[in-house]
Amino acid sequence: MTETARAEARRRAGQGPTAARAGIAGTPFGEQITASGIAFAAVGGPLETRWHRALTELAQCIRPIADAAVLNEGGVYDGCWLESTGTINTDVLARFAPDIAADTLRQFAQLQREDGMLPYKVTPDGPGFSQIQIVTPLARVVWRHHQRTGDDALLRRMYDAMVRYDAWLARYRDTRGSGGVEAFCTFDTGHDLSPRFWFAPDRAFRADARQIDPGSATMPYIAPDLTANVACQRSYLAVIAEALGEDPRPWRDAAQRSLDALYTQCFHDEDALFYDRDRSGRPVRIASDVLLRVLACEVGDADFFAASLRRYLMHTGKFLAHYGFTTIAMDDPRFDHDASRNSWAGPVNFLAQLRAPDAFEQHGHVAELALTAQPTLAALAVADAFPQCLDPWSGAAGFTEVYSPSILWFLDALERHSGILPHHDGTVWFSGLTPTRLEHGAAAEAIAYARTIGGADWELVADDELVEVHRDGELAFSFPRGWRVQTDAAGGVIAVIGLAAQPVEGELMIAGARAGASAVVPLRVAPNERITLSGGAIGVREARPFVSPVF
């Protein structure tokens, strides 16, 4: 690849306001995109066009439900769902449009019921309370938003609402006194059509989330994903309580009780999976994306996660299809790859893909996450829609379109693996797994990605060999394709991380303005390896063993 292609990508990224190119100028989302300084360009292939189309369609998902413009789920779903729109979708959206993310969070507190229940959805018809439908911990999303924005008023309001909801769940969703959290119906976990809930009602009895159908043969389940959600939720309530000057210890203790219940009630030693326990005490032995949900709730240590990768998540006979993580293990006879409907019985669902980084990144398995994302990225790049589901065999777009989780996954994947990502911890990730090797005509020759962070204008320009990072128009550092460079908020290099599936050898060049004197650091970086640096000097090296796809 040539310097000419990189220069062309950089020129195109600076051609004009991103909001205008995406046709969203003057919209609330367009204003936030302009404020962020985000731009993207790709020389060759469809990625540049699809990226701007993603912004166009995401803007269509941002519209008022009551007063303020908030994120809507999109597709056939008119409204905002707590399990997705109001949590994981908003978590990603906050990097692009923090004000809209704040309003999306705030509406759930505003519409909380008097008894403490948060609505599972908010639509133009009002709030819904017929099920709980929780997956990604709301408290983690709220805390990350506070880390990014420092919005103390929102933190306090959401904390008070979440405290009341925790009490509601403890009162109504632990009828067996197990310490876990119970599912009363299919929609409590959003697992439409999943064999996990065969012979269970879709909604709670008489559309009241406090009631169990007395005639059900199986309900209630002590549900591992719901229990893990509350364990993680309580851990972050402890963090928020401490930030607000309150005692975090009761929340930490409560989180541990939830975690104990999860393992006591739901963990199967032989299978190393978490299963529902039905009303008769039997495990519901269906291997599903419950595993990924539990791991994304920060359950389990590094060894357990690596074992889960080898046995399940990176296993091509279990959950790793070529086009993403499936929702039922592929060797289960009940597996159904039909992606033409809202199904969690097998197809690749973009909500599951969007939740995956919270599991993989926590344990440093960034190279596996990047590897598994590439075919899915190629599939969306050449698709004619942003769907809810993909066919796991072909990558063909399935059910619905203009769906915010798939749009956000596309934006996140490009930024996470080959762009500039301002992390909620205050660091900045400059990632160099440039999308130059995608299949099916999706590859670019070179790309450019821009963001404004802390008043500085950053640009990442990359081809199949080299990644250059510029600050305010001047070269700051460069490195080979396949690495991620992590900086502090001021742009000082603090670490290099291996994103590629094989070791990558090359040089990190740090320009003089950042290091006191120009420095060239030769490195060989293995997959998942993290090498700390200070002033250009190598510090600690640590790595997680890379798990290749298992056949």
TrEMBL record:
<dbReference type="InterPro" id="IPR054491">
    <property type="entry name" value="MGH1-like_GH"/>
</dbReference>
<dbReference type="InterPro" id="IPR012341">
    <property type="entry name" value="6hp_glycosidase-like_sf"/>
</dbReference>
<dbReference type="InterPro" id="IPR008928">
    <property type="entry name" value="6-hairpin_glycosidase_sf"/>
</dbReference>
<dbReference type="Pfam" id="PF22422">
    <property type="entry name" value="MGH1-like_GH"/>
</dbReference>
<feature type="domain" description="Mannosylglycerate hydrolase MGH1-like glycoside hydrolase">
    <location>
        <begin position="93"/>
        <end position="403"/>
    </location>
</feature>
<protein>
    <recommendedName>
        <fullName>Mannosylglycerate hydrolase MGH1-like glycoside hydrolase domain-containing protein</fullName>
    </recommendedName>
</protein>
<feature type="region of interest" description="Disordered">
    <location>
        <begin position="1"/>
        <end position="24"/>
    </location>
</feature>
<feature type="compositionally biased region" description="Basic and acidic residues">
    <location>
        <begin position="1"/>
        <end position="11"/>
    </location>
</feature>
